[in-house]
Amino acid sequence: MSTPTAWKKSSFSGGGEGNDCVEVADLDTHIAVRDSKAPARAVLTFPAAAFGSFLGAVKETPTATPFAASMDITP
């Protein structure tokens, strides 16, 4: 698996420097996720299809956070 180089952060990342969120990176077959407050720490990876299903379910939830709606990652 390759190392992510292009991280995307939600436009709803909070005030200040916008570090109250997670960032995602597309690795073709997987999606990498990291904490924007601590980007040097651990990175979680998920199969792209599973992450796409997760985002789809979150977007359909009435109480979904703006983060999910702002992410444009398609498996």
How is the quaternary structure best described?
A: single chain
Assign the structural class, choosing from mainly alpha, mainly beta, alpha/beta, alpha+beta, or little secondary structure: alpha+beta
Order of helices and strands: EEEEHH
Strand content: 15-25%
Spatial extent as radius of gyration: 12 Å
Distance N to C terminus: 16 Å
Low-confidence stretches: none
Strands, count = 4
> What composes the largest sheet?
4 strands, antiparallel
Kindly state the percentage of residues in helix: 10-25%
Adjacency order of strands in the biggest sheet: 1-2-3-4
SS element count, helices: 2
Shape: flat
Give the mean pLDDT. 77
What distinguishing features does this structure have?
75 residues; 23% strand
Written overview of the protein:
With 75 residues, the protein is an alpha+beta fold. The protein has two helices and four strands, in the order E-E-E-E-H-H. The chain has helices at residues 48-60, 66-70, and strands spanning 8-9, 22-26, 30-35, 44-47. Strands 1-2-3-4 form a four-stranded antiparallel β-sheet. It starts with 7 loop residues before the first strand and ends in a 5-residue tail after the last helix. The model has no long low-confidence stretch (mean pLDDT 77).
